[in-house]
Amino acid sequence: MLQKRMKELRLERGLTQNEPAAVLRTSREAYSMYENGKRQLSCQALAQLAQYYGVTTDYMLGLTNDPEGAPKLTADEENLLDHFRECDKRGKRTVLQAAIQQKKESEIH
């Protein structure tokens, strides 16, 4: 799947093999071998290509069909999640009920 995604991403952007090869600081010929499965891409090179194309490594590897991956949490969301995880079962239920009630109230207004 990696080779297929590499080629798809490159072609979708109208690039030749020269551009991603330059990102990896390799030749077009070497890049062609990666794209055709004749040479294995290193983890570092995979990460570089994912960043270059603006997708996740999971997407490139075919582990997900969502190129952007999970949305990033805000600082407030991380804080809430940290506190939620520290709650016991009853506390978690209370937090969830409060969130559901807040959502209902905001939909009314």
From TrEMBL:
<dbReference type="InterPro" id="IPR001387">
    <property type="entry name" value="Cro/C1-type_HTH"/>
</dbReference>
<dbReference type="InterPro" id="IPR010982">
    <property type="entry name" value="Lambda_DNA-bd_dom_sf"/>
</dbReference>
<feature type="domain" description="HTH cro/C1-type">
    <location>
        <begin position="6"/>
        <end position="60"/>
    </location>
</feature>
<protein>
    <submittedName>
        <fullName>Helix-turn-helix transcriptional regulator</fullName>
    </submittedName>
</protein>
<dbReference type="GO" id="GO:0003677">
    <property type="term" value="F:DNA binding"/>
</dbReference>
<keyword id="KW-0238">DNA-binding</keyword>
<dbReference type="Pfam" id="PF01381">
    <property type="entry name" value="HTH_3"/>
</dbReference>
